[in-house]
Amino acid sequence: MMKQFALVGKPNSGKSSLFNLLTGLNQKIGNYSGVTIEKKSGKVDGMDVVDLPGIRSLKSVTAEEFIPKKAILEYADSQAPVLFVCNGMMLEDNMMLFTEMADLQIPMVLVINFKDDLEKNNIEVDAAKMAVQVGCPVILMNSRNGDGMDDLKKAIKENKFQVPNAVCRSLYDEFSEDTVGNNFQALLTSTSTNKSEVFENDFIKRQKIVNNIIDSTTKSLENRNDFLDSSRSIDKILLHPVWGLLIFLAIILVLFQSVFFLSGYPMDWIDAGFASLSELANNNISSEWLASLVSDGIIAGLGGVLIFIPQIAILFFFLSVLEQSGYLSRISFLSDRVLSKFGLSGQSVIPLMSSWACAIPAIMSAKTITDTKERMAVIFASPLMTCSARLPVYTILIAIMFPSEGTGFFNAQGVMLFGLYLLGLVATLLVAYLTQRRSTLKTVPLFSLELPVYRIPNWRNVFYNVYQKTKSFVVDAGKVIFVVSIILWFLLSYSPKKQSFLDEQYQISQTQNQDQNISRDAFDLEYSYAGYMGKFIEPVIKPLGFDWKIGIALISSFAAREVFVGALSTIYSVGSEEEGLIKTRMQNEINPDTGKKRFNIGTCLSLLLFYVFALQCMSTMAVVRKEVGNWKYPVMQFVIMLVMAYVAAWLGYTLYG
After folding, report:
1. From CA 485, how far away is CA 81, in angstroms rounded?
2. What is the spatial distance between Cα 56 and Cα 64, in angstroms, rounded to a whole number?
3. 257, 321, 522, 567: which has the fewest Cβ within 10 Å?
4. Residue 64 banded pLDDT, cuts 50, 70, 90
5. Counting Cβ atoms within 10 Å, is residue 85 exposed (0-12), middle (13-18) or buried (19+)?
6. pLDDT tens digits for 413-462?
7. Is the domain covering 4-220 a CATH 3.40.50.300 domain?
């Protein structure tokens, strides 16, 4: 009895939709060993099924397509069966890959997908006649609504997989007289100097054979409503150098407005929910240290992970809609010309733009970039884009630098904020450019796109994709953040000094500084492990205009940038929800060395520049580690950006301090 089979097909063939339809929720998602390419597997009637990543040709050279290529060659050796999925509206192009699979003599069933599109265009495919031509069963299918699923499941259950005809035997005269399958593998692994010429001849021969098969088994009826012609008509507008760009900007504006504004309420609800849980823990756990651990460590740690869910879910929802509708390829085409000046392609535009919301989904969505060198450059540089976590830091520091004095709509505050966003964008593109130039990874010199026809998204697949991506983030990144949050809680909550020493020192400080009214929380923070760390790093950060209190906030905010404001709230004995009072205390803070205000223009500018460049987000580092498969890359990323932040902050304070 057959135990396993795989799904193989080109991108945009509907293969993953068919996989979801076959397996339902009985599947799991992971990564191939040592790489970040997504691996899907599941169960169908007790049999294992693997959804191999989309591949354009067995002659592909990209790292991403090497994974399915290697798996297919292994299937050829073991004679494991394959379900080959074709896009019915791009039959000629998809069948080219099928002929390559056929020459490996792998048992197959050929599925021609998007049966509904064929019917709408009055295109008729004689599946029985095509089965005779190709030498294996052919099934017409619609992966969106399951039409044809009964025939497909019957073919799988009865193991009707058959070895197709080897369609290009004459090609292998240039190699040896072994079996066709072995000869094609020899072609794929050949280092012959005439390999390019052989591939070109191979392509021409296959194209002739595929055209003959399609011409003899398909026909277009009268009164066609050709989707391809309709797509071309739409593309005349959407790919227009002027109108296409304006429409693109409008769509992106809607997307980002949705990510920011639609996520606002659910993020507030999640934040409020965890705040209630924290209060509940404090009120009902009698042990003070345990209550603090649960409320400030565990609950805060989980909240720090789950609060990102709305942004991630909304972003991947719109990305899935754009992808399945066929427009995502057009966005890449439009942006390719600009990004090419920085060594990037149009495939980078979506990950980079999504970084304005959060670098985490941006890094996760970098899987869509086929060029390994480009993908790694985007992963490395995308944290420099101004994410929403920086906004609390930016707004409070800008408000201190430029107090609002009714200067109208256009004022220094708005210009400064715009400048920070622009600086982040420029830094991202320059770092991506330099990363690519320094990288030793193999690159793909040409950026090619297959523009699918426009269609209504498969909503079942869209929501399932959102579910899987969100689940992957919570489970994988959440583990690291959970541990880090508990460590930070410990550093902020405990002191290396004995309690009697702290009590004595607090009484002395109250006597000597009666006019300052130092709270016990602020005092204990100074003598905590984190406080000592702040004192320890003070000589290093002093050239930037920072003191030990700012140092504590910096250390605390390495978990997440927005923690900076909350840490200052504790340091200055002000509730974190009272932002106005935080600003007042910061404005009134005096530098004891100079007798002047601590948060002058130089210090504020130094902090702003520090947060523009520094990678102060543990969750981002955790996701980078997940995507690249090791800690070396995120650690290098962290160190380089920290150096950039330090130099920029020093320059800012030196010039204006």
Report:
1. 47
2. 11
3. 257
4. low
5. buried
6. 777 777 888 898 889 889 988 887 765 555 444 455 556 667 778 787 78
7. yes
